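Project standup — Tuesday

K.O.: blocked on the structure for the chain from last sprint. Re-posting the sequence here as requested.
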Amino acid sequence: MQKKKLGRTDIEISAVIMGTWQAGKAMWTDIDDNETQRAMRAALDAGITTFDTAEVYGNGHSERIIAKALAKVRDQVVLATKVFSNHLKYDQVIAACERSLKNLDTDRIDLYQIHWPPGTFGHPLVPLEETMRALTDLKSQGKIRAIGVSNFNRQQMEAVAQYGPVESLQPPYSLFWRALEADAGPYCQEQGLSILAYSPMAQGLLTGKFGPGHAFAKGDHRVAHRLFQPEHFERVQKALAELRPIAEKYKLTLGQLALAWVIAQPGCCAIAGARNSEQAVQNAAAGEVTLGAEDLAAMDRIGRTVTDHLDDNPVQWKW
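H.V.: unblocked you, prediction finished:
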C-alpha cells in the first residue's frame, strides 16, 4: 500500500482510504453491520490504515460501527470524520466533536473536516471565522490533530485558510467527474494540501457493474446521481468499453483501475467504500498499482468523453 503525508502534517495516510457512508445505512440498502465490521478489519489487514466517516452518516451509526470494528487497534489507524453544515456555530462544533469522539470510542480525531460549506442545504450561513475558531481550539486541546474541509471550492478554501491551517480537501473526483481540476485542485497543489477524493469509482459506475436498464432498490440515493441519468449513461458505457483493455493489461478490475488513476494524480488519495470483505481487499490492491504514463494519457482522453458533456454544477446528485 502506498502511503502519503496528510497535507503539511506528519500524519501518514494510506493511498486508499476506506469510506464508510454505507456503514451509516441511511440512503443505502442491504447493509449489514456485522459484514461492515468484517470489511473494515479486512481493509486494515490488506493495508488500508485510514478510515473516513461523518456525524451525518446514519446520525453517528457509521462512527459507532467503526468503533466496534477498530477500537482495539486504534493506534494502527487514522480516523477522519466530519461536522455537518447544520452544526457550524462555535458551540455546535464543540458538541459535535464530543459526540464523534464518544461514537468513535477515542480520545482524538486525526482529521476533523467541515463536511459542507456554511449555508449549504439551507442551513445557517455561519462565518468561517467562527467555525475555524472552534476547530483550532479543539486542535490546541489535542482533541483533533488536523483540520480539513469537504466540498469547498477554491474561493472557499482561500477564505477558510485565513483563519487557521487546513490540511486537506475532500471533493468528488473520478475519471468521470473532474470539476476539481479546473477549480480547487490547483490551489491544493500550490499549498501542499491533500486531496481525499470521494466517489473515485463514480458511485460504482466505474466498476462496470451497472449496465443499461439497471434499476436501483428503493431508498438507494444513486437513482438521483447525474451520471446515471439517460443523457450521460450511453457515453459512460462506451467509455467503460475503452477502459477494459487497460484494466486487463494490469490484471485489474475496472474499479481497481479507477482507484489507481485517482491515486496517480498529484496529492490524491482515493476514498472507497466496501459492503463486504472481498470488496475491501480488492480496493486495497489498487493502492499497490503504478500506471504507466501512456495508459494514464489514454485514460485521461477516455474520461473526457464523459466529463466534457457535464455542466459546471459541482453537486453530483439531482437533489
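K.O.: great, moving the ticket to review. The chain has one domain: 3-207+253-290. The longest strand covers residues 78-83.
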